């Protein structure tokens, strides 16, 4: 009985620590924390960098974060270590270029926040603190422009929800005399 219990616990622990390694060349950078890897089998895989969050395109520093990630990884062969997908079907991964941990590099350069809701690695918080103190990247912005992306997305969602123009489905006319789309 004791041996069965040990075997069961060992199996559960290994299941939780299991990770797939995906190797591929970066063929597209969507924003500061999302990219496309092309595997040797010519399969495109959408990767979301785990434990970090970067400003969205349209948000202050969003384009700079995208450029920072592209400068680090575009057309490079990376290893993505992952054990899950997000609700959008993207592979959540720790990315490595050789021995360089890309997720951490984005934090160290001041191009990303630690995504506290999803982060488990205390080193990332230390890297973020140092980037803040050194006013690197987004931390050099005026405080009023440093809105965490999760708060920015939430405020945009709330604005859309309460705006009559933005909440109409695209097939419904907005102007009173506009012809209806069929």
Automatic annotation (TrEMBL):
One Gene Ontology term of the molecular function aspect: hydrolase activity
Identify the SUPFAM superfamilies for this entry: Staphylococcal nuclease
Q: What keywords sit in the KW lines?
A: Endonuclease, Hydrolase, Nuclease
Its name, as the record gives it, is Nuclease
Report the source organism. Answer: Candidatus Hamiltonella defensa
């Amino acid at each position: 009985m004791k041996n069965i219990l040990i075997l069961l616990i060992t199996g559960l622990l290994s299941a939780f620590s299991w990770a797939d390694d995906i190797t591929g060349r970066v063929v597209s950078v969507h924003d500061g924390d999302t990219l496309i890897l092309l595997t040797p089998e010519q399969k495109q895989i959408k990767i979301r960098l785990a434990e970090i969050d970067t400003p969205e395109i349209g948000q202050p520093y969003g384009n700079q974060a995208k450029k920072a990630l592209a400068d680090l990884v575009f057309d490079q062969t990376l290893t993505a270590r992952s054990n899950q997908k997000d609700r959008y079907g993207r592979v959540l991964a720790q990315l490595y270029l050789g021995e360089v941990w890309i997720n951490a590099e984005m934090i160290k350069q001041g191009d990303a926040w630690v995504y506290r809701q999803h982060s488990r690695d205390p080193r990332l918080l230390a890297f973020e603190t140092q980037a803040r103190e050194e006013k690197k990247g987004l931390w050099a912005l005026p405080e009023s422009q440093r809105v965490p992306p999760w708060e920015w997305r939430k405020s945009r969602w709330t604005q859309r929800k309460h705006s009559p123009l933005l909440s109409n489905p695209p097939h419904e006319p907005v102007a009173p005399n506009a012809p209806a789309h069929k």
